[in-house]
Amino acid sequence: MMDLDILVAPIIIFMAVVAPLWLILHYRSKKQVSQGLSEHEHRQLIELANKAEKMAERVETLEALLDQEAPQWRRKYE
């Protein structure tokens, strides 16, 4: 009986404090995940995609220039 009395207080504290907070935080995070990207995150994603496209165009231009100026450059860096 003595062993059971020692566990009663921590179990009550856990059930009264920790478990409800745990459930609230768990379902709040699930809700945020299911909502998808915020408007700000969506704008950032579009901006990064545009920058990536510009960078790809610049790389293509640089490769074209290098092909004209130094046709053997690809073999040197492979």
TrEMBL record:
Signal peptide: none annotated. The chain crosses the membrane at residues 6-25. It comes from the Bacteria. Keywords: Membrane, Transmembrane, Transmembrane helix. The keyword Membrane applies. GO terms for biological process: phage shock; regulation of DNA-templated transcription. This is Phage shock protein B. The lineage of its organism: Bacteria, Pseudomonadati, Pseudomonadota, Gammaproteobacteria, Alteromonadales.
